[in-house]
Automatic annotation (TrEMBL):
Residues 1-22 form the signal peptide. This is L-type lectin-like domain-containing protein. One of its GO terms (biological process) is endoplasmic reticulum to Golgi vesicle-mediated transport. Residues 374-405 form a coiled coil. It is a single-pass type I membrane protein. The chain crosses the membrane at residues 432-450. Residues 246-300 are annotated as: Disordered. It comes from Monosporascus ibericus. Keywords: Coiled coil, Membrane, Signal, Transmembrane, Transmembrane helix. Its main location: membrane.
Amino acid sequence: MRLLRSSALALGLATTARVAEAQPQFLVNELSFGHTGRINDRGQGTVPGFSISGTPNLPEVLSNRLILTPPAPGNTRGAVWADTPNEYAKWVADVDFRTNGPERGGGNLNIWLAKGGNQAIGQASIYTVGQFEGLALVVDQYGGSGGMIRGFLNDGTTDFKTHHSVDSLAFGHCNYPYRNLGRPSQIKMRQTDTVFRVEVDGRLCFESDKISMPAGYHFGITAAAAENPDSFEVFKMVVMTENLNAKGNAPPQQQQQQQQQQQQQGANADAVREAKMRHFGRGRGAPPPPPAEELKDEQVPDEAADAITNTAAQFADLHNRLQSMNHQLSTIFRSVASNNAQSASRHDDAMDALEELARSLEGLKGLAGLPDRVAALEGEVVKVQRELKDMRADLRARVKDTEHALKGFVGDKHGNMLEHVAVQASPRHGKLIFVIVGSQILLVIGYIYYERKKTLPKKYL
């Protein structure tokens, strides 16, 4: 009985969690297409609310799908971008696509949520885009995996086109064999107050609680086909939100907390800088040097000692001189403080220049291993050359051995053949003489027999 109660409680909690997650969603019509089963209800070759572009030809708009890259020819590109930016902080975006191609076909599909949209990115992929600002989901065959979905983020400071290793910038990924499935695949992106999630065919791909996409970015899809092309087809792109009236660029709570922390850190840094300025007269923003009038010597005119005849005059003269000395000391202190401030400002400029140099050197760290790679490559080339030389020497030796063996074999066989011809196949003169003499004897015997028969008497009956 207790087991049944605990199972019922677990089932109730799971159902409550699912219901809490599946809150009612409302369609954002200006950011969606294909949700009615047709790309354009009027039968036109356009996508309402979206701009399409392609190279060398525009993507083909059919009744129920948009072909970004055709099956032929290769090296084509296609893009579709929403004309209206996303103004919602919490949203869900569904993209249904299908990929068909030959056995070794190649290409990639990029789903964007980026600032500037078509004007900033156009038909670029994650490998050809520059300093974009936003999110990109890439579907390709990275690393020979047969299919992978990866997520990339950029705040506008990283140039992906010139980066030495774009693949290392991915913050999340999952394997997904997407090619030649014969059915559309669904990628769902979900942004809430606490988490950003990517699902594929109803299963979790990856998620992060440190990502919050601000409002004002454009949705878009781009595709690029290789020389042996894959055909990328998009059936629909649907964007939904919980409240159609909740528009605005107000950042979520997590982003506000981060901004507050940054402001607090900036305030603390300013306070420390002001304290240094007060105590040491250093740092940027120090008070400007005193004007030239304050740096002039406040000289007290000299008077003869005979002119001071009483104690009051003597005290007044001493007071004036002490006051002038105090003013001169104050002027000296202000001049020293001004020089310190200028030195500190120049020091800060030098430090900033060194920091920029350090950042440039960090950007070149990826090339630090290039000499080692070149040296390793040279070593491999030397090994290949050495092996080729050894192989050539071995081949020469084997050819010489074969030549010597062939010469010996041919010489032996040739000598035996000569002996055979000389001994066995040479004509014999004895037989020839016997034949000639025998034929002559037979002729003589035949002639004698003929003559005798001719001379014999004839018998008559």
